[in-house]
Amino acid sequence: MSGPAIDPLDLAALLCSRVCHDLISPVGAIVNGLEVLAEEKDEDTKTFALELIKKSATTASAKLQFCRIAFGAAGSAGAQIDLGDAQTIARGFLEDDKTKLAWNLPRALLIKNRVKLLLNMLLIGSQAIPRGGQLTVDPLGTGDAMGFKVSAAGANAKIPPAVPPLLAAESMEGLDAHRIQPFYTGLLARACGVVVTMTMDANTVVVAAQ
């Protein structure tokens, strides 16, 4: 399957911008917390600042681990990634007080591009439930050719109108650091020889690749 034409430098720059966008908030919070610690004398305020630093550092670490696999090289060409490790990374990045993840995949080693595809599908699914909800990932098939189904259920779950055309590479109009992620997911799918779709099933958004 051939993909759309995009300059490799543009793709790299947009993906880097996306990663930086994800990290700006927690890193900025760490800096603010350190400034409070350096200037404040009130113990309660210092305790609050320490809690903020700890929480933000944990968030930044989880985002870095996720982005390393989802967008990065993650080993040499042909490398395999353990789905158990992918589960741990996905939970650290996606789960919070509002969003939970049900992981129904077997423990297995898969070619890195398939695991990268899965993590990007989960990210798209999470964006379909901005108020939180339940993410469920199920296998489609078995073995090295395993595909995935990500179901996103939550209040006001909906398909962002720009995403399906980006997944299918039907349009590159307005491609920026925000839109590059679903576009990149489509590139990964074609590199894996699968088709990724995004549909509504009752009140659930389903992202599937097979």
Mean pLDDT equals 89
> What's the structural domain tally?
1
Structural class, from secondary structure content?
A: alpha+beta
* Anisotropy-based shape: globular
**Main pleated-sheet profile:** 5 strands, mixed
Question: What's the architecture, going by CATH?
Answer: 2-Layer Sandwich
How are the strands of the biggest sheet laid out side by side?
Answer: 2-4-5-7-6
Compute the CA-based radius of gyration.
18 Å
The CATH superfamily appears as: Histidine kinase-like ATPase, C-terminal domain
Would you give the CATH topology? Answer: Heat Shock Protein 90
Per CATH, the class reads Alpha Beta
The share of residues in helices is: 40-55%
Count the beta strands.
7
Distance between the termini: 13 Å
Order of helices and strands: HHEHEEHEEHHEE
Enumerate how many helices there are, as a single number: 6
Strand content: 15-25%
Low-confidence stretches are: none
Structural features, described:
50% of the residues lie in helices and 18% in strands. It starts with 7 loop residues before the first helix and ends with a strand. The chain has helices at residues 8-39, 43-70, 83-94, 112-127, 163-167, 180-191; strands spanning 80-82, 99-103, 109-111, 133-140, 147-153, 196-201, 204-209. The strands form two sheets. A five-stranded mixed β-sheet has the order 2-4-5-7-6. The mean pLDDT is 89. By secondary structure, the chain is α+β, with helices and mostly antiparallel strands. The chain is built from six helices and seven strands; from the N terminus they run H-H-E-H-E-E-H-E-E-H-H-E-E.
